[in-house]
Amino acid sequence: MLDPSFIVAQLPAVLGAAAVTAWIWAASAILGVAGGVGIALARRFGPRPVDLALKFSIEMVRGSPFLVQLFLLYYGGPYVGLSLDPVPAGLLALTVYGAAYYSEIIRGGFAAVPPGHVEAAACLGFTHAQTLLRVEIPEVAAVVLPALVNMTILLLKETAVLSVITVPELTMAISAIGSESYRFVEALFLLALFYWGLVEGCGVLGRFAEARLARFGVAAP
Amino acid sequence: MTKRLFLKAAFGLTLLGIASGTARADDALARVRATGTLKVGTETAFAPFDFIDAGQHVGLNVDLFEALGKDMGLKIQWVALPWEGVLPGLQAGKFDVVAGPVTITKARMERYRFLPPIADATDALLKRPNEADLAKPADISGKTVGAGKASSQLAQLQDYAKTLGQPVTIREYVGNTDAYADLAAGRIAAVANSYTNIAYVAKQRPDTFAVVEPPFGPKSYFGYLIPKAPESATLADALSAGIVKMKADGRLAALQKKWFGAASDTPDAVTAPEL
Amino acid sequence: MNPALFRLLVEATGYTVALSAVSIVAGLAVGLAVATAMLSRRRALSMPARAFVSFFRGVPLLVQLLLIYNLLPSVGIDLPGIVAAAIGLTLCTAAYQAETLRGGFAGVPRGLVEAADMVGLTPVQLFWRIRVPIAVKLTLPSLVSEAIMILKASSLVSVVGVVELTRMAQDLAASTYRPLPIYATAGALYIAVDWGIAGLGHALERRSRWGRA
């Protein structure tokens, strides 16, 4: 049923598309985590209206499918003067989507830091900034790492939606191979293989990061 | 222990596979007659052939298969999938015939059997109205044009673009609706699709879209398709005879007039497509 | 927006909600079984459970759905689209829920388990009366966000022929050629359902605070 030689022949084209998926995924995950940290800090230390506005925006982004958000940004944007090319539009939408989820995970992580640790740091004469950098952030990182990895995997699945705005990513490339060659089973196999590989790669990075944090004496409580 | 479980499972699956293999070798026409139901796979985002209007599944396909079913004493059961799922679904035996319809090409004829053509599929361009610098198809030279991914109309556009002076940037869309939306949003200058489809689009939203006359592609036709497997041959013959009959007694022309605004001439069979 | 179109979108939301609800509940049951198997000391149980999670988390839901719908017929299992959709969503969410619940089981205090053992609970009672309620309670917030994830992931089941909210929006966009208001409405309907789920989650959390867990 499966024709291995056909699969091998498609690899160069598929690898090119996989590279597009991988870089957009990595960039949106990194920017998304940075944005998530920023949002979490702004909600913690900023004035109340900022907190409420961010809370509302996060609900909107987390509540609706990424496809709908991307569609409205890309096809609706030009009507309000925001005409982005496919790749920048995809990167922006994916980063915002990821940041909304990441910020909630990180906020939950701050809540999990025992108040005693912060008080102990204060007793030892740490400044607020030092407490944040040396005590809270390392502890939060250890607590939220598994959830961040989980979310990053979900973000990868969402990159497939970018085909709707003509980004030549993995799902787009492989389904085109399927419909041009009529070899749908091989196409499904390639799709499964490449996404599974990317997910497992992300899992390995996550475990590496966990081990690094553990070496500095920080581990999830 | 796991190994033995696995072997048992594999053995069971093989048996099932053999059983289903024999079941599927039955003659398709006999099977359809026995159940009294013809299963038709289609996509419901292909107006005027197949679409959802006020919650009702309508279009030329629906009327045509309804009439065909009445002639043959069969009930029609529709299976609506996104287009990328339709041909895999046919291969998996989820339905007997694909509506669509599909542009008849040499490559597709190698893999599938086409029923007699039911409409013209010649490629044409859709633009925004009042675009004076896009008066004829050749004016897309140097512009950006969209088309449906893996469609015959995309292939024709690519061939046509090579004959023009300046390179044409071609964007491939998952669905035609997305391409139309991008045309309305102003990112692309035109969309290539069959004349039948885009004439309908322009008629529905004349404020937003217009047709670039004349069509640019080689003459081509839309048809329904059915597996080439020998067990499907009798069903294909019966359906083909039904369509030819509807052509002869004027019912097909009446449906074309109803859905396209005008009847168009189609041959009884396409043997050597230009594409 | 045209009220007839709006009614169609609301009706399609019914499919989305029903399918998600069935999958979440069935997925919780399968997820519990898989999580228990993952924590088992017997490799014959833990290895397949790990493979299950790796496959269903690693392979896109789209591929899983197409495998169930289009490839199972070749081994004699021909499922209607709606059944294939429910099974695909259930297995996918089960894999994510199993990972979450595994963490929940790890959070059950040892002392509590020992105490229950001392008062003479059988292992089965211990599992159903102590470990499962506490694990579910500990992971309730994650399970609620997983429910919202599945609600949104259900937009993929159109590949097996189920016309849920997203597909209905696409169909209507294709026949009216006015995609923007239709997609915006669909997005608002998803958000409305999410608020319902989140409200339900909060209610459950409040109840479980003074409940038997």
TrEMBL record, chain B:
PANTHER family assigned: AMINO-ACID-BINDING PROTEIN YXEM-RELATED, MEMBRANE-BOUND LYTIC MUREIN TRANSGLYCOSYLASE F
Signal peptide: 1-25
Gene3D superfamilies: Periplasmic binding protein-like II
UniProt entry keywords in alphabetical sequence: Signal
Ranges of residues in domain Solute-binding protein family 3/N-terminal: 37-263
Organism listed in the record: Lichenibacterium minor
GO molecular function: ligand-gated monoatomic ion channel activity
GO-annotated cellular components: membrane
InterPro entries linked: Iontro_rcpt_C (IPR001320), Solute-binding_3/MltF_N (IPR001638)
UniProt protein name: Transporter substrate-binding domain-containing protein
Domain (Ionotropic glutamate receptor C-terminal): residue spans on this chain: 37-262
Pfam families on file: SBP_bac_3
UniProt keyword annotation of Membrane present: no
Automatic annotation (TrEMBL), chain C:
Record-linked CDD domains: TM_PBP2
PANTHER family: L-CYSTINE TRANSPORT SYSTEM PERMEASE PROTEIN TCYL (PTHR30614:SF0), MEMBRANE COMPONENT OF AMINO ACID ABC TRANSPORTER (PTHR30614)
Bilayer topology annotation: Multi-pass membrane protein
Limits of the ABC transmembrane type-1 domain: 13-201
UniProt xrefs under NCBIfam families: HEQRo_perm_3TM (TIGR01726)
UniProt keywords, alphabetically: Amino-acid transport, Cell membrane, Membrane, Transmembrane, Transmembrane helix, Transport
Major location (coarse): membrane
Entry's Gene Ontology cellular component terms: ATP-binding cassette (ABC) transporter complex
Provenance organism: Lichenibacterium minor
GO molecular function, one term: L-cystine transmembrane transporter activity
TM annotation in the entry: 12-39, 51-71, 182-204
Protein name as it appears in the record: Amino acid ABC transporter permease
Superkingdom classification of source: Bacteria
Protein family (similarity comment): Belongs to the binding-protein-dependent transport system permease family. HisMQ subfamily.
Pfam families: BPD_transp_1
InterPro entries per UniProt: AA_ABC_transptr_permease_3TM (IPR010065), ArtM/GltK/GlnP/TcyL/YhdX-like (IPR043429), MetI-like (IPR000515), MetI-like_sf (IPR035906)
Compartment annotation: Cell inner membrane; Cell membrane
